[in-house]
Amino acid sequence: MIEGGSAAIAIEKQHINDLNVFPVPDGDTGTNMTLTMGASVAELRKKCPTTVGQAAEVTASALLRGARGNSGVILSLLFRGISKGLKDKEEADAKTLAQAMVDGVDAAYKAVMKPAEGTMLTVSRVASAAAVEYAAKEPDIELLFAHTLAIGYEALAQTIDQNPVLKKAGVVDAGGKGYLIILEGMLAALKGEAIGKPETTAAATAVVAQTAAVDPASFSHEEITFTYCTEFLIYRENQNDISDFRSLLDGIGDSLVVVDDEAVVKVHIHTDDPGRVLTEAKAFGSLHSIKIDNMREQAAEFGGGTENQSPPAEPELPSELDKPYVAPAEKPVGIVAVSAGEGMASIFVDLGVDQIVTGGQTMNPCTDEIVRAIDRVPAETVYVLPNNKNIILAAQQAAPLAQKKVVIIPTKTIPQGVATLLVFDPEAEVEDNVAAMEDCIKRVKTAQITYAARDSDFDNHQITAGEYLALFDSTLLGHAAEFGTVLQTTIDAIAARNPEFVTLFYGENVDEATATRCAEAISAQIPNAEITVLNGGQPVYYFMISVE
To answer: From the centroid of its chain, how far is CA 464?
Structure first.
């Protein structure tokens, strides 16, 4: 049933992503739920449980470690409660299973700090309550699932009216839809039915797939120069200089990111020769979490060529690392930061970060990746900077799983993470550092310039895919086809705060000359502010701007 649920959400992943209202390209709900479910399938195939209780326990444990983003964490919480309800049971009847679903909802509501209605929590609560009521009079589990789904879809339809943002956009909650699709897949597997193929929708083919280079005059999509998007981790077995390897990769591909934190090297490259990349990488250690995607096939599928293709296979997950390591404590405190982009990683390391977890807006790291990074820090107490609001929950779930004392600092943006490191005192008490860093978070505002991944009607803005977007914290300031327009909108918002310090982190598709011109434009309007320009190399965001 778990395999069926995983296959169903994988097939419908893009449909779920398209329900997201906010147009910024990010680790979307469908993607996060698919990767989270995939972690459980991989673990179940390895463990081969023989009772329903064992299957539920393996599933819950794998989902917890493989959870990505808020939707993945909530999904893992729902199954953790189900696992507790099925603990030590060899089999389960309708009443037992229905009550376990309620236990899952209770676990999720208790763990989420401020549970909101009109979300996956609402849909799961209403559906589970219906399951308990139905199981009291009908013992057939297939009928139980069918009834639960019917009531669940009624609850899903009501999420439009429960959430003003959804109502404005005219869509249902993406997480709630994903949850029901997983239940549908579980029911199909229970009945011995094959999981069908997805329908191709116009929305699924309209999403912008890649960030274009900044050009004040126009916005154009990148052509696919190299075929294979290749990603993997190297668990270092020596300290050989990686610079020659980086230079080699730079000559056989593009979109290159090589982040070396001494213990683990993260590699991302677009290339025509992934075999050579992996062969050369073995000189530094063992390879893990290897993921190779054919971008030309993805592009063809994205354009509507999916009719004759098979459903997607379960993804290879970074949570499937097989060499966990707990570093002995050599100092009182250490730091883990989530970051994307080689430049940003270097900035964090320069500020004292011990371990970088590669991820952020486009790909939320799973709980297990954060756990492993924490355990590799040679310190007694480890501070964690999620640097993204969609990663905070996963970091909180990682804390009790790690072998260290963990302190989560709830940074929602990269600039907040950088600023908190500037006030961090390694000799101070934990309580004093937490107070100082959380106070710093309140003072730092973040402006961002990115692009629209989809058409959207958001917050009274009619947005077209491919337009530039100007953001200030969680507020959409404006959008336009011209880069100069959104830059001026952003500068106006920054100037209104009369800041003392402004730091521009420019992204992987922005050159230094363009970044310098943008800084000069800010300086001309805010002459009293101290302005710094740094190469962050981050994907998705042309600029992330710290405003203090």
So the answer is: 23
Judged against a pLDDT cut of 70, whether residue 223 lies above it is answered with: no
What CA–CA distance (Å, rounded) separates 108 from 116?
12
Contact, 94 vs 117, CB < 8 A?
no
Q: How confident is the model at residue 361 (pLDDT cuts 50, 70, 90)?
A: low
Q: Please tell me the distance from the alpha carbon of residue 520 to that of residue 491, in angstroms, as a whole number.
A: 11
User: Residue 532 corresponds to which tokens in the numbers above?
Assistant: 């710094």
Amino acid identity at 379: A
Tens digit of pLDDT for each residue in 135-156? 999 899 999 999 999 999 999 9
Q: How far apart are CA 116 and CA 129, in angstroms?
A: 18
Strands 468-472 and 475-480: antiparallel
Taking the C-alpha atoms of residue 23 and residue 333, their distance in angstroms, rounded to an integer, is 39
Radius of gyration over alpha carbons of the chain, in Å?
Answer: 23
pLDDT tens, position by position, 236-263: 788 888 888 888 888 888 766 666 655 6
Which uninterrupted H or E stretch holds 235? strand 228-236
End-to-end CA distance of the chain: 51
Residue bearing tokens 């209780």 = 53
Q: Which residues does 409 contact at the CB level (< 8 Å), separation at least 6? A: 383, 384, 385, 420, 434, 437, 438, 441
267 with 258: CB under 8 angstroms? yes
- In Å, what is the CA distance from 28 to each residue of 42, 209, 404? 22, 13, 30
Find tokens 């401020």 and name the residue.
114
For the chain, how many helices (H) and strands (E)? 21, 16
Cα angle 215, 483, 250; round to 5: 35
Which of 409, 266, 404 is CA-nearest to residue 341? 266
Calculate helix-pair angle for 414-423, 430-443, nearest 10 degrees: 140
DSSP 265: E
Q: Are 29 and 73 in contact (CB under 8 A)?
A: no
Cα(320)–Cα(66) distance, rounded to whole angstroms? 9
145: its two tokens: 């699932």
467, 459, 519: which is closest to 494 by C-alpha? 519
- The 3-class secondary structure across 149-178, one letter per residue, is HHHHHHHHHHHHHHCHHHHHHCCCCHHHHH
Between 8 and 233, where is the model more confident? 8
- What are the DSSP calls for 474-518, one per residue? TEEEEEESSHHHHHHHHHHHHHTT--SEEEEEE-TT--HHHHHHH
For the chain, give the longest Cα–Cα distance. 73
Strand, coil or helix: 9: helix
Question: What does pTM read for this prediction?
Answer: 0.65
- Report how far residue 160's alpha carbon sits from residue 167's, in angstroms, rounded to the nearest whole number: 5
**Alpha carbons 353 and 223: distance in angstroms, whole number:** 36
Question: Is 300:250 a contact under the CB 8 Å cutoff?
Answer: no
Which tokens is 397 given? 């779930």
